[in-house]
Design brief:
The complex is a heterodimer of chains A (274) and B (347). Chain A is built from 11 helices and 10 strands. By secondary structure, chain A is of the alpha/beta class. The mean pLDDT of chain A is 89. Chain B has 347 residues and is mainly alpha-helical. Chain B folds into 2 domains: 39 residues; 303 residues, ABC transporter involved in vitamin B12 uptake, BtuC. In chain B, a hairpin with a 2-residue loop joins β2 and β3. In chain B, α13 crosses α15. The N terminus of chain B is likely disordered. Classes of the chains: A alpha/beta (274), B mainly alpha (347). Chains A and B meet through α2, α3, α4 and α5 of A and α1, α8, α9, α10 and α11 of B. The complex binds adenosine-5'-diphosphate and magnesium ion (MG). The site of adenosine-5'-diphosphate has 10 residues of chain A, from α1.
């Protein structure tokens, strides 16, 4: 699928408060269908909070979230998942006791139909559904993300980088239309970061998924994103093409209190490193 | 088509018993279960039936507590609901016993859903307390709703009948209780081959992210309560046909603790754990009785020590497993199996 002008996801005037603290103030931006949109900003700017509002984890006090023009603000998280919103978490939320394979299979839940009676009997329909899922996970997701060798391991024994990759696999099993990635390469080394960048691009290009990504790694953002939105203290302070945003003095100010884009780059690289 | 071989391998991978040794041992075990009633005396047959009934109740509790992470101390009360349902259907409706057993399961499941409603808000200890409260409320109902339950004196239960025969002896009842139990244990294992079982485990491990993955928490928690109570109800129903009388004291609160202990000792969150836990915990007091009888020539008053010794051993087992083997007997069995690898059917 190619990028189009239609917004696949639209965040419209979202405000979110915790007690008296406003984590988000009237935040609006959109992600165009088939594109990669990066959300950047200093720590505590509200990036994860935006993701939580989109996936339904937090209820904004005002504003809307629209998926393909449909207001989904009132829907509970499982409904949104069924509509095709998938995400990975900043601090990895895999099921540590389960194997990689079971973790990934879990992602398909909302699209499956087996009911309790069919499950107890492991009826023909249930068996076929499980088998189809197994094939799809093995042949489209595990192969694609190059995690064949770990498929039967419990996730608790995997390195951080591999766990992030399994989380991406599980999100892909959800058959997403919108994929929310919260710091997908944080804590990864150069090589792992490059692998992940390649996977994210492939997901966009081959699967036609619209991607919204929180990241600190400016190099990655410059390389793969089509559009950047900058948050600071819960407000959108800039947006545009990656190069435009990078050159914007407001953005540098948000990070450093100075107007120097070079200093911003340096700071962002430092943040990405730890 | 290339898919041909791949298809078969995925199907085999998703099978309940994946290796040949597993299938052979299972066949041997089933053959053993067929031989048992012909080879043991009435006392041991009584014990086997009791164990088997407990296996059903413990497996149900394991689905709820071991797999879904919702601690319940109400399992015995749901057994009582099943037992009363059977007694009432026998007395007032005269329906066939298999229908009554299903009725017992469904009645308990319906109540289980009601008792499970607080689980969306409260967890852990608080949920356990809520299930205890439900147990005491149900006990109150059993005592006071005399027109249905017969009050404190309870209800006598007519024997289970198949055309032309009443099932009264342990030998006859075994052929009902054992097959029903096998079916229910296999059904429980099947649940965990599908999306429903995966959803339960996800809720146990991280209920918030389970929701973002598309799993509606309330629906699945209530489903787990319903299944656990259904199992308890059927177990209680079989119990009613086995003992032929149901009173408010038939299923004391202690029984709920016994069942929780059984899944802790056996292994929470594995089907095997619920089964071996129930067997082990049912048989331990009897083994102790033999020990006490055996030492009685040397120890004066050994008989009076039996009850406190039982309690101490019971408590000691729970604490011992929690501390030293939290995965339970099932994990020990897995270790032994790994030790012997595929012996003796090396492939
Ligand atoms: N559950 C919560 N309760 C209270 N405050 C929160 C909660 N989640 C986020 N916040 C606050 O909202 C602000 C934005 O946080 P977050 O969205 O995590 O930032 P980012 O992901 O950009 O680093 C922070 O000030 C944070 O302390
Ligand atoms: Mg964050």
């Amino acid at each position: 699928m190619r990028m189009s002008d239609a917004a696949a996801l639209k965040v419209a005037g979202v405000t979110l408060s915790f007690g008296g603290v406003k984590a988000l103030r009237d935040v609006s931006f959109e992600a165009k269908a088939g594109s990669i949109t990066a959300v950047i900003g200093p720590n505590g700017a509200g990036k994860t909070s935006v993701f939580n509002c989109i996936s339904g984890f937090y209820r904004p006090s005002s504003g809307q979230v629209l998926l393909d023009g449909q207001d989904i603000s009132a829907l509970r998280p499982p409904r949104r998942a069924a509509l095709g919103i998938a995400r990975s978490f900043q601090n990895i939320a895999l099921f540590r006791g389960m194997t990689v394979l079971d973790n990934i299979k879990l992602g398909r839940h909302a699209h499956m139909k087996t009911n309790l009676l069919q499950a107890m009997l492991y009826s023909g329909a249930a068996a076929r559904e499980e088998e189809a899922l197994r094939r799809d996970v093995e042949e489209r997701i595990i192969d694609f993300l190059e995690i064949d060798h770990i498929r039967n391991m419990p996730v608790s024994v995997l390195s951080y980088g591999l766990q992030k990759r399994v989380e991406l696999a599980r999100a892909l099993a959800m058959q997403p239309r919108i994929l929310l990635l919260d710091e997908p390469v944080a804590g990864m080394n150069r090589e792992e970061t490059e692998d992940m960048a390649r996977f994210i691009l492939d997901v966009k290009e081959e699967w036609g998924v619209t991607i919204l990504m929180v990241e600190h790694d400016m190099g990655l953002i410059m390389d793969i994103s089509d559009h950047v939105t900058v948050l600071n203290f819960g407000e959108v302070i800039a947006e545009g093409l990656p190069a435009e945003v990078q050159a914007d003095p407001h953005v540098a100010e948000a990070y450093l209190g100075s107007g120097d884009p070079a200093a911003l780059m340096k700071r962002l690289h430092e943040e990405a490193e730890h | 088509m290339i898919i041909g071989t791949a298809k078969e391998s995925y199907r085999a991978d998703e099978a309940l018993l994946t290796t040949k040794p597993q299938r052979v041992w299972m066949a041997i075990f089933l053959a053993f279960l067929v031989i048992v009633p012909f080879s043991v005396n009435d006392y041991w047959l009584y014990m086997v039936c009791l164990m088997t009934i407990n296996v059903v109740a413990a497996t149900g509790l394991n689905i709820l507590t071991g797999f879904t992470g919702q601690v319940s101390l109400g399992q015995a009360a749901f057994m009582a609901v099943g037992a009363y349902t059977v007694a009432w259907m026998e007395r007032d409706l005269g329906t066939p016993f298999l229908v009554n057993l299903v009725g017992a399961g469904l009645a308990a499941a319906a109540l289980g859903i009601v008792v499970g409603i607080p689980s969306l808000r409260v967890k852990g200890l608080y949920l356990a307390i809520a299930t205890i409260a439900a147990s005491f409320i149900l006990h109150f109902v059993f005592v006071h709703w005399e027109s249905v339950t017969g009050g404190n004196t309870g209800i006598n239960v007519a024997p289970a009948r198949i055309p032309g025969m009443e099932l009264t002896t342990y030998f006859q009842l075994y052929w009902v209780i054992m097959p029903v139990t096998i079916i229910m244990v296999v059904a429980a294992a099947n649940i965990f081959r599908t999306r429903i079982g995966r959803a339960f485990i996800a809720i146990r491990d991280r209920d918030i992210s389970a929701e973002v993955l598309g799993i509606p928490l309330l629906q699945y928690k209530l489903m787990s309560f319903a299944i656990a109570s259904f199992y308890a109800g059927v177990a209680g129903g079989m119990w009613a046909y086995f003992f032929r009388v149901v009173t408010p004291e038939s299923f004391p609160f202690m029984m709920s603790i016994f069942l929780l202990a059984a899944i802790i000792v056996g292994g929470m969150g594995t089907i095997l754990g619920g089964v071996v836990g129930a067997v082990f915990m049912t048989i331990t007091p009897e083994l102790l009785r033999f020990v006490v009888e055996w030492v009685s020539p040397w120890v004066p008053n050994a008989g009076t020590l039996l009850s406190p010794v039982r309690t101490i051993v019971f408590g000691g087992l729970i604490i011992g497993f929690l501390v030293f083997e939290p995965q339970g007997l099932a994990e020990i069995i897995q270790r032994v199996r790994r030790f012997f690898r595929l012996w003796p059917f090396r492939t």
